[in-house]
Queue: 2 jobs
Job 1
Amino acid sequence: MLTIATANVNGIRAAFKRGMGGWLDDRKPDVLLLQEVRAPDALLADFFPAGWHLAHSEAEAKGRAGVGIASRLPMSAIRIGLGQGVPTNTGRWVEADLELPEGGALTVVSAYLHSGTVGTPSMDEKYAFLDLVSARLAELTAGGGRVVVGGDLNIAHAAVDIKNWKGNLKAAGFLPAERAYLDRWFGAGWRDLGRELGGDGPGPYTWWSWRGKAFDNDSGWRIDYQLATAALADAARTATVDRAPAYDQRWSDHAPLVVEYDL
Amino acid sequence: MLTIATANVNGIRAAFKRGMGGWLDDRKPDVLLLQEVRAPDALLADFFPAGWHLAHSEAEAKGRAGVGIASRLPMSAIRIGLGQGVPTNTGRWVEADLELPEGGALTVVSAYLHSGTVGTPSMDEKYAFLDLVSARLAELTAGGGRVVVGGDLNIAHAAVDIKNWKGNLKAAGFLPAERAYLDRWFGAGWRDLGRELGGDGPGPYTWWSWRGKAFDNDSGWRIDYQLATAALADAARTATVDRAPAYDQRWSDHAPLVVEYDL
DNA sequence: CTTTTTAAG
DNA sequence: CTTAGAAAG
């Protein structure tokens, strides 16, 4: 059984200070897809010493974004960024080809999409990046191989994926135009393992604002995903969001999404 | 007995979080001269509710400098800043005239001089401000009244006022030109109560860097003072720096200088 | 309400 | 090494 976890850590230093290390020791994922690392390369390596293989896309803007892949399996290739010419060093996309124990390959991707704010340029950047992701997803399915794209997409797909969906119909992260991207990806064969193996909902959510009692009230959003190609999806056995009460310690505003694959 | 304390709090919010409130309850000064308040007016007032009279000079630059006077005695006048035309709102000088219980008046000043860095414009600003202070001190002595100027002058007067004096002969805070200002003020009759009542030294120091083990090694500087006019100085009975072991909790990089006056 | 960075000390 | 503010989430 191969365990792949995705987690927006909201600053890996803060996360470890708040107890991420305990979760890691307990869960022991084989592959960890990280978003919002918010640290330089050398610093990330400190948290994953001997035994881990690392891929990391640091953002040019210090302390912002940053995606990483920590893997117990060796990496045969690493690809950083999406698109060309246009800002590729934004710390939002990193891929690694892994060598499975029984032989064969698995491509894992850690993705971090823009949060976006309606009426600001960040929304245009989000859509532009979504277009790049769409193009790359098409390439990744074309080969027919095993691929998982995990990360914080900063979009809730449907009403069951967000507690206060009525109040957020005009909010970034639940706009019809954003959700349509997910519709298209799923229509093209990408499988939403968190939903398929997580029940019909509402929930489980993966993100809660730090403000007020959002977490205690489970007033959250499901914006973290593991999207798998057909070749991989059928091997998925369980999908779990590691939040309270099973995992009580809150070391990020997101909770990890952990999927077990029969590989 | 009237107790006047001066303290560079290095951010009043952080100081209270670290235990300044306990010190205040224990020491119960009648007058508290504050430097580096680093907070807006309204916020300072929150820490000194009913029973306190407040004077406050907030710096224009938010979160920087800021001097205040908190007094159990009523204030008959408040004067903010030094000089005119030139930046007067730098949060470095505030005066209050207090009404003594037995009748009579006492002028108290809270002063915060620039730290300064050799070879930078901040050094010129420090000297320019020192000139303004010299002029104001002359005015304050002219009346022959009781005046105390307390605060962080960011200058150690003599070798006994700094642990590593040899290593700091070319460092801001111990430059001959800076120390000459203190010489002139003392020559003009201002009395250095911390030294007069604190023994011959070396020490006691009032500031230690946060870095390394400066505090544990008592590798400090005496840069906080209570300077009194002749009319007031003879009433001073004790001068104490509230640092470990008597006061163990460190809630600022400075320790308070507390003087008891027989008034 | 939290993150890392910044400038200042 | 710490403070508070800044920008971003």
Job 2
Amino acid sequence: MDCSCVSDLLLTPSMPALWTPGFAFPDWAYKPESSPGSRQIQLWHFILELLQKEEYQNVIAWQGDYGEFVIKDPDEVARLWGIRKCKPHMNYDKLSRALRYYYNKRILHKTKGKRFTYKFNFSKVVLVNYPLLDMANSSFLLAQSPFSGAHNPECGSLTPEALQTLFSPPRLGDPGNRSPLFERQVQNSEAEKLRMETAFPFLGSGVSGYSKPPSLLAPYSRNLPFTDYPWSFNPYLSGAFPLAGSKLPGSLYPPHFYPNPLAQMPTPVSILPGEANLERSALTPSTPARVCLPPSLGTLPLRGELHPLPGRTERQAMGETPVGGAKEDLASDSELEITDVSECSSENDFSPDSVEERPGLLQHTMRKYKALANKPKEATAGQLS
DNA sequence: AACGGAAGTC
DNA sequence: GACTTCCGTT
């Protein structure tokens, strides 16, 4: 009420918080779990939001390589952040302190020598989008990273047990209904949190990380569109957003960074599980679930077989249409500076999610992944392409 | 500008 | 836990 700060950019009624057209983050990343008791947006989310809003290109923008961005107007970013957090006295000094705390979490790191330039640990973003994928490739991915395998204890943590944990079915008490994309879990279980933290340590007490994305994750296209991605996989293209009909400005997707998904999205590989395996009712009926899979998953069991992280992650990877329309999304884009206060304490509760139990599949998938992970990259790529 | 410790807030 | 605030240091 008295806090005339919050932008409704991400709190449009018809749309859950943190609508990010180019990125898809599992709901657990949206807060309740990552910060028990708090529902506020995290700074890195906010940064990502700004980064993909065309209107803030002069404030903050992707620049340089791979995940690197420049805060062109520190004061403005701080101001926006302050508005978002109802911290009128926010400034860049404080904001940057918060950013520095991300260094240890491996979410960000500083691009030395470049003023106001930071870099996302991009692999983590990919991880968030395609957790299973990343896990599947973890061995050789990490092997290629500057902080590879032997030096990376995390690499060894991706054990079948970890997978098991990640895939473990929900507790019996967990609600069994699926919720539409963007609805977030409210009654998310600790198990879920544990699963996530196992897979995405950076969100917790993370350890590993690579400053450079694994080569398999492909360099950004400098000139070519989608085809430049070795496996037609745009890590920033979640596919979880209204594609057809959406009118996201192409400029939101700098070609050198991530091609315009709307214009260049190739026919994606569908990992749509069989109808019997997926409760399609939760999906927008007219919107085919789709996802661009990297070749590494090309030979993995698809349709009805691959059923990674049943629930949130899967649906995102499948390109579920978010609640609300693109039009509203766009309309809200320019309202970051909204001064509507009511949002300050508004709640954005979402329905609980569910996880399906597929023990057989789990075993199968785990074996497959393990096999894949143990193969040389080339061989794997070949086999998968 | 950038860093990071320390204490405080929610 | 994720900042916010303050501040001394590089």
